Amino acid sequence: MSAPAPSPLAIVDAEPLERQGEVLTDSALAFLAELHQRFTPRRDELLARRAERRAEIARTGTLDFLAETAHIREDPDWRVAPAPAALDDRRVEITGPTDRKMTINALNSGARVWLADFEDASAPTWENVVLGQLNLSDAYERRIDFATPEGKAYALRPAEELATVVARPRGWHLDERHLRAGDRAVPGALVDFGLYFFHNAQRLLDQGKGPYFYLPKTESHLEARLWNDIFVFAQDYLGIPQGTIRATVLIETITAAYEMEEILYELRDHASGLNAGRWDYLFSIVKNFRDAGPGFVLPDRNAVTMTAPFMRAYTELLVRTCHKRGAHAIGGMAAFIPSRRDPEVNSVAFDKVRADKDREANDGFDGSWVAHPDLVPIARASFDAVLGDKPHQKDRLREDVQVTAAELINVASLDAKPTSAGLRNAVQVGIRYIEAWLRGLGAVAIFNLMEDAATAEISRSQIWQWINAGVVFEDGEKATAGLVRAIAAEELAAIREEAGAEAFAAGNWQQAHDLLLKVALDEDYAEFLTLPAYELLR
After folding, report:
1. For this structure, is 514 an active site residue?
2. pLDDT, tens digit, for every residue of 394-419?
3. How much is the pTM?
4. Following DSSP, what letter does each residue of 353-422 receive, concatenated?
5. Considering 112, 312, 452, 460, which one is annotated as catalytic?
6. Residue 487, Cα to own-chain centre: how many angstroms?
7. Which end of the chain is more exposed for a tag (fewer CB within 10 A), N or C?
8. At 6, is the pLDDT very low, low, confident or very high (cuts 50, 70, 90)?
């Protein structure tokens, strides 16, 4: 009997990087090829299903809980697997990309968890994709350090003081053009998940932790089922015990908000919790209901706080759903970046962060996100005040919460309206973020906020929606393509003046300006800004 044919290898199509061979070993590339062969066809089917569902929303202008999965929601008995010790207390989580400096700072931050981000906080340059994996492996082996050109040194604290890593792969819609198997690029989600799991699963188990993941941009329980099948296969492939992987799903799409229980059910042997993401959630509402009439026109993004009625409905349903099924409920992002020069700005912002984290803790969340180490003590104090010595508050079942399908999309309940200042801010932030992204930066400080790709998505989506809805601002001016082009030209000129001619020419400012206008003004709405942006990424 002949031996089975060896697994094909994924093919690397990129200029080699220093130490790339440590990540892209033959065995790792064979694993990626297996994942691709088995699961990419299902990924493709699910992306097609997204488009079909979007067409149905456009036709009906509404969403509802699924009739065909009512039995899952009505079954009182099932629970997700108990949390491993390393993920039992998640009261503060810090987020950020996997560059070397951030890896050290995040692990040292005092947060319980670090969301090590290959997704919205990381522009997927080949260098970021590969070296990000290397940085995590180096951190687990304690062979990571960093020194700035000015001589400031960074090194890891003792192991017991470090945050637990939860890695976030890219969303299903993005391919990795530098890795191919057969005649297709391998999905970025499989590359990020596969390399991290392959190299670190056993290493993490040996350290008393495990391979933990955040799953982004999920739109349905069928997508959660795909991830669960991937987890089962991957654990068998490497001989890792089933149930070792733990996944927290970001409920950052409006369709997923109607399937929270079903998502947990599909992942129940691997589920760790759900997270409430703000900007991507609003982006998803605009994307899905962009042509559903004036009742779905969102005001300025900063006017849509988590206390808005439809956002309260979403977050309270998330807490109730998680605790009903024994999962962690993780709150949203505090994106403020402290100013080293303006204590007054810091004081006002810290008060807002404190109020936001107090609200989350009192609502029943078990933890929350921050973008900067200086916010860790503020968020921790809010949760310490409610949790005390308890690792979480899953015993708060929030049975008082009753949310209807209509409440989740009751955007018209907002009093605020779009403003001229909001339009200008969307243009400003969009250009500045896209320019940085094209330079390989996914987490960018803009106007004292740490912004990621979700910020640019909601910014360009709001511009598109306001124009197509014929919004008239408080100053009597109407949202038009001409107005947006004029504002964009003014902002580009202001940036040129601010940066100087040489620095401006060295950047990607014209490209960023042009891309923002394309995705904000084209009649055909681009599903994701990062798809055309990836074509420009060096």
Report:
1. no
2. 999 999 999 999 999 999 999 899 99
3. 0.96
4. HHHHHHHHHHHT-SEEEESSGGGHHHHHHHHHHHHTT-S--TT---TT----HHHHT-GGG------HHH
5. 452
6. 29
7. N
8. low
- What distance in Å separates the CA atoms of residue 117 and residue 215, rounded to the nearest whole number? 11
Kindly report the number of other CB atoms within 10 A of residue 177's CB atom.
Answer: 16
d(C-alpha 441, C-alpha 508), whole Å: 12
How far apart are the C-alpha atoms of 144 and 126, rounded to whole Å? 20
Residue 500 region by backbone torsions, left for phi larger than 0, else alpha for psi between -120 and 50, else beta: left
Question: Which residue is associated with the tokens 């798809």?
Answer: 531
Question: pLDDT tens-digit profile of 382-395?
Answer: 999 999 999 999 99
Structure tokens at 18: 């220093």
Sheet holding 11-12, edge to edge: 11-12, 175-181, 184-187
Cβ atoms 168, 117 nearer than 8 A:
yes
pLDDT digits (tens, 9 = 90+) for 484-530: 999 999 999 999 999 999 999 999 999 999 999 999 999 999 999 99
d(CA 31, CA 326): 33
Determine how β-strand 11-12 pairs with β-strand 175-181. antiparallel
**248 contacts 203 by C-beta, under 8 angstroms:** no
3-state secondary structure (DSSP) of residue 319? helix
- Say if residues 168 and 115 touch (Cβ distance below 8 Å): yes
Residue 425 identity: N
Q: Which residues pair with 478 in a beta bridge?
A: 472
| Distance (Å, whole) CA 66 – CA 60 | 15
More confident: 147 or 2: 147
> Which of 50, 54, 168, 359 is labelled catalytic?
168
Strand partners, 444: 451
The token pair that represents 412 in the structure block = 């018209």
- pLDDT tens figures, 141-190: 999 988 888 888 889 999 999 999 999 999 999 999 999 998 999 999 99
Residue 312 known to be catalytic: no
Average pLDDT over residues 344-364: 95
